[in-house]
Design a protein that fits this description.
Phenylalanyl-tRNA Synthetase, Chain B, domain 3, 21 strands, five-stranded parallel β-sheet, Uridine Diphospho-n-acetylenolpyruvylglucosamine Reductase, domain 3, five-stranded antiparallel β-sheet, single chain, Rossmann fold, elongated, 15 helices
Length: about 450
């Protein structure tokens, strides 16, 4: 099968786009993108050309730009062009030239998409090919990556709303050059490709040829390995999802993991990483997370958004506190107060009723309180007289007695009247405000979760 037929077949098999879709081709002027243009033209696709002049090679960069303009004229298609001060951008953003160029390119592509909404561009095509994919695989491997990095580049990329497609990923560089020669195509050679200044060039010019002396079919073998790794990744993801369902227990905004079950899980380090990465923990924190399994209760490690906390037989993934209001004033006329994804509902002047054993309901002798009440987060030094006791107890000690986790303690609120705590919300009322035979009117306060 010739390259054109392979090209069409690959697009159909990968479901990249429809034949009548409007396409934007990223064209540098090199042989890969020139061949991409010719293949799209011979296939009868509706395409336009986009070229970025990164101004990194002086007159050579301008010559590339002029050459790509001439391609647009040759195929009678719309041309999109832009010039970037790439070195300045890289310096201002403290990044390398390659990353800067990629960021600028993708930002501009997105701007084109936004400008062209009326005649929507369905796909942006890049000319990455099989040799590029082999280099990406090796670079990821030596940088240190999980199984996803060993799959190389995706045929369909999630960038720019999932519009980035790589329809030449099946083809080798050798095939591309043969096609260009056969069809008398002209292209520009980027002299920087011969320099080993950039990592990819070193892999292309030095490492792969050296490996090829020992394993002549190295590139073919690695391309086949990429397909194997893709299949392995599918099975890996299925297994991870099944293990997550067995291990993770959702409790409010937290996720709880049983320590004993986690320890007995095969490849526990990998499983833990696959769970924790979704909560912004890094691969470097996994060893610390493993140590938590044998740590004392209350020990924790943090990511930028969450904490992993040891609490007896569990490790708990809990979001970091936000800057919510920490104190509320409750007037006598208030019927409901909303706070921290919960609310307190008040009913006053109720006749005496039998006390219900319910932590979410506080029945209080109305004569023993006075408004306004204060609802606030508890703090160190707080104390109250727990229901059924005539002696005061510090809340910190009370929390230990009822075995609250660190995050449960941090999220505990108290209700005050006349500077005394009348209810540790959701846990225990104060003995001094309890309903007695002498009570004539009751204030009912119900804790309601809004989740």
């Amino acid at each position: 099968m010739n390259l054109l037929n392979q090209f069409k077949s690959f697009i159909n098999q990968s479901s990249l786009f429809q034949n009548n879709d409007r396409l934007l081709l990223a064209v540098s002027g090199g042989v890969d993108s020139v061949v991409l243009c010719e293949l799209c033209f011979q296939s009868g696709f509706n395409f336009e050309i986009a070229h970025c002049n990164f101004q990194l090679r002086g007159k050579e960069s301008d010559a590339d730009e002029n050459m790509v303009k001439s391609l647009a004229e040759k195929y009678k298609v719309k041309y999109h062009g832009i010039k970037f001060d790439t070195e300045k951008y890289a310096g201002e953003n403290k990044t390398n030239i390659q990353i800067a160029a990629r960021a600028l390119r993708y930002k501009w592509f997105n701007e084109i998409i936004e400008q062209e909404k009326i005649k929507a561009i369905k796909s942006i095509l890049t000319a990455h090919h099989a040799d590029d994919n082999v280099e990406t695989l090796l670079m990821n491997f030596f940088k240190g990556t999980g199984i996803k990095g060993l799959q190389g580049m995706a045929v369909k990329d999630g960038g720019i709303g999932g519009r980035i497609n790589r329809p030449l990923l099946f083809a080798s560089k050798e095939q591309i050059i043969a096609f260009a020669t056969q069809h008398n195509l002209s292209w520009r050679e980027d002299v920087s490709n011969a320099s080993n200044k950039y990592t990819r060039n070193y892999f292309r010019n030095e490492l792969l040829p050296a490996i090829g002396k020992v394993f002549p079919q190295v590139e073919i073998n690695l391309i086949e390995n990429i397909e194997r790794f893709k299949d392995a990744a599918i099975l890996f993801d299925l297994s991870i999802e099944q293990l997550k369902k067995k291990l993770l227990v959702k409790k409010g905004v937290e996720w709880h993991l049983p320590v004993l079950k986690l320890k007995k899980t095969p490849a526990v380090k990998t499983i833990l990483y696959e769970i924790l990465k979704h909560f912004d923990f890094t691969s470097h924190q996994v060893d610390d997370a493993l140590q938590l399994l044998d740590a004392d209760s209350g020990k924790y490690i943090s990511s930028t958004t969450h904490r992993l906390i040891k609490n007896r037989k569990w490790v708990i993934i809990s979001p970091l506190e936000n800057n919510e209001v920490s104190t509320y004033i409750i007037e006598a006329a208030d019927k409901e107060i909303y706070f921290s994804s919960q609310s307190l509902r008040f009913k006053k002047n109720l006749p005496p009723v039998v006390f219900e054993n319910n932590n979410s309901l506080a029945l209080i002798d109305e004569k023993m309180i006075s408004f306004p009440l204060i609802l606030r987060k508890w703090k160190q030094g707080d104390y109250f007289y727990p229901l059924g006791m005539d002696k005061k107890k510090k809340l910190s000690r009370f929390f230990i007695d009822i075995k609250l986790s660190l995050t449960e303690k941090e999220n505990t609120w108290v209700l005050e009247s006349d500077k005394k705590i009348i209810w540790v919300v959701g846990h225990r009322i104060d003995n001094r405000v309890k309903v007695t035979p002498a009570t004539t009117e009751i204030c009912s306060i119900t804790l309601v979760s809004s989740k």
